[in-house]
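Progress report, Aim 2. The chain analyzed during this reporting quarter is listed below.
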Amino acid sequence: MRIAIVTAISAFGSDRDTGPLCEALAAIGIATDHVAWDDPTVSWGRFDAALLRSPWNYSEQRPAFIGWTQRVARATRLLNPAHVVAWNTDKRYLAELGASGLAVVESHFIAPEQVIDALPDWDEFVVKPSVGAGSKGAARFRRSDHEAALVHARQLQAQGAHVLVQPYLADVDHVGETALVYFDGRFSHAVRKAALLGDDGSRRCSQSAPGVISPCEADAGQRGLAEAVLREAGQLLALQRPLAYARVDLLPSPSGPQLLELELTEPSVFLGSGDGAAARFAEAIEAHLQAG
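Predicted structure tokens for the chain:
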């Protein structure tokens, strides 16, 4: 078997998970080619599957990316599937998950054509586009920065974006964000991510900077919420089996963990932070290929 490890032309060599994953796949007899979704010369039908890993420029051209996933899904098996990608690449899915009663960070969405006169009255909050990756376009504001926040939101609207406004949960500054990784529906490992947005509205650091990511233990409350989120997503998406990979990002709050994002498209899965994680990921991919 041979699968395509899908990146973007601009992201070749950027994904730290690719090396360990390709080695683990080779160990079970699955060959890999590292190819870009935005390379028009690739013949996708020659692969047994295409695995999304680092197509990180999708947010800048989402309609083209969604169209590409649909074409590739007709030529080979796409992991994760195209309809999952279409749903998951716009954070408006948070409203659907929140409507089910899950603990989701409160999320307000503003359409591009909607007039914005005011934003939710929180001490601190984040304004970002509903389509984005790596905190791009996200900015943190205080109540006293309300006018600057309005300007930022309107700038996002002018770019055609739906705007997402969420309260800033301050516990993340000293506890961090917890990301739980699942392969084929089974928990693999968890990492702690340091807060990325500074209190001056700037970005503190890159996710790839030393010390930003560290292994951690997920507690029962975090595991319970993550697995409830995956179950609900499976029902919303009418999935017949668990997805090959998923990452559930949680923030701490006084009332317990809350869902920040459910990453089902191209998440870093931090294989270097979990013993045996690369082998578990490879086995999940093999299981999906064998399922036909």
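Residues 202-206 have pLDDT under 50 and may be disordered. The two ends are 13 Å apart (CA to CA). These observations will guide the mutagenesis work planned for the next reporting period.
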